[in-house]
Amino acid sequence: MAHVSSARCGGFLMSDDQHGTTNPVMRLISDHLDRYAADRPDQDFLVLGEDRLTYAETKDLVDRAARALMAAGVETGDRVAMMSTPRPEFFVHFLAVTSIGAIWVGLNPKYTTGELDHVIGDAEPSLLFGCAAAAGADQLEKMRALVESHACLGQLVVFGNLGTGIGATSWDGFLEGAEQVTVDQLAERRDSIDPMAPAYLVYTSGSTGRPKGATLTHRGSNICNVIAVDRKGLSDRRLICNLPINHIGAIGDICARTMTGGGTIFFQEQFDPLDTMETIERERLNTIGGVPTMLQMCVGHPDFDRFDLTSIDLLAWGGAAMPADLLATLMDKTDCTRATMGYGMSEVTGGVTYSGLEDSIELLTTTVGTPDERQELRIWHPEGREAVAGEAGEIQVRGDFVMVGYWRLPDATEDAFTADGWFRTGDLAVRREDGYLEIVGRMSEMFKSGGYNVYPREVELALEEHPSIAMAAVVSVPDPTFQEVGIAYVMASGDAVPSADDLRTFAKERLANYKIPKKIVVVDELPMLPIGKVDKKALKALATSD
């Protein structure tokens, strides 16, 4: 399963002074919790509504849960699953499981039974944890059905009120097992953990096939967390986590990085623009983030103008490009002068490029920033050489921050890496003369039309320049004359809806003729994945069925 790079970059981030960081790369993800529990024990760390856990309280709960897991027979390398909305319990559970050398698996309650069966059948966790208060009766029944249908699941543990007839152990009852394991035994287990051993599995979205489990490590997480705190200015952040717990954005980009920077996380079980703005105003949050779709819903809310959002001093986003007008509106409303974004994916434990905190709106909306010297990155030309500035090539990365492989998929793992250890992201980019990277698109999305390469993202960006278009998505379909042609689906940003002919004329002023979509369809909404990205697989099916 594991891919071992022949050119590891171990040790490239071990000196704090070398890069001006105050955050060392620690052995275990949970080590940063221990650090802040000692330095700022009474500071709020995990918040949901009126419920608050300080750093010290969180550490005590994580340690107790870790001992209870050991008492339940969880060994190094065992998988333990958690199904929940974004809540403090999720991150407590994540830290407890990974801190004893077990492998954490997050499950999205919105998954269908078939999707859950795939992940559980692949990961084979020995325990399943879930939140009764968050999931509701139907989800409790779903969890019980999973335990009954998967022999690997020996026990179901539920947070909150169990009710009757559930056939599960309560969280409080499970924690009683902690008395069977001493503090010294817990410390001994933690001392034995290899930071490069698997710590958690993040299953890819499945937009290009069945989800695969990217196997991520303590060291990889801590490297990315420290770099992100440095480059994105993430010290002492107060922000919301509302992404699915099975997504690297929730685990790494928000929770682990906020912890690395000593901040406070406010959980939101599902995104709600009104609640987001109320929380910012009430709690004086200093960071607003998410995918641009979420931020657009805040700006478009009828009550947007009545909230005081001036406590925000940092805007952060990922997962998709930010429209320039949306960014300008947010920066004006919040009085914010700093914004940050970048490029990354599950397999590289988050981000590998970063914008500058003082970058212009033009740079923030047309590029994904620059690589960091602590992470190896190259743009690899199809001819088998490094691309020069202005040439398109695949983004490839190498180092301890990259996954060790796809869980139990040796062939897929081998295909994902070059012989000398570079991970093939499958994303195409151009490095500009100033060093900034522009994403061209996915290699798998590129198509040939009349013998010419067409990159859907380039076409989408051109269409999104139209003042009446909020979002565009382009897919290819077979064509008897040109081999393949593009079909564009666009969402209008207001009541003024341009015609397909108007948009085609607009695109012709910005794109070569062979890049112009054969068909442009105006839609009320685009199909979206749970993480806020356009579901290109669903769009492709729609396009080919028309």
In short:
The protein is 33% helix and 25% strand.
How would you describe the overall organization of this protein?
Helices cover 33% and strands 25% of the residues. It has 17 helices and 28 strands. The chain has an 8-stranded mixed beta sheet with strand order 7-6-5-3-4-8-9-21, sandwiched between helices. Helix 2 (55-71) crosses helix 3, helix 8 packs across helix 9 (248-260) and helix 10 (273-283) crosses helix 11 (292-299). The longest helix has 18 residues, at 132-149.
Beta strands, count: 28
Report the uncertain regions. Answer: 1-20
Number of helices: 17
State the CATH class of one domain: Alpha Beta
Helix percent band: 25-40%
- Output the radius of gyration: 23 Å
Basic shape: globular
β-sheet strand percentage: 15-25%
Class by SSE composition: alpha/beta
Overall mean pLDDT stands at 91
Distance between the termini: 41 Å
The largest pleated sheet is described as: 8 strands, mixed
CATH topology name of one domain, in short, is GMP Synthetase, Chain A, domain 3
Strand order of the largest sheet: 7-6-5-3-4-8-9-21
CATH superfamily of one domain: ANL, C-terminal domain
CATH architecture annotation name of one domain: 2-Layer Sandwich
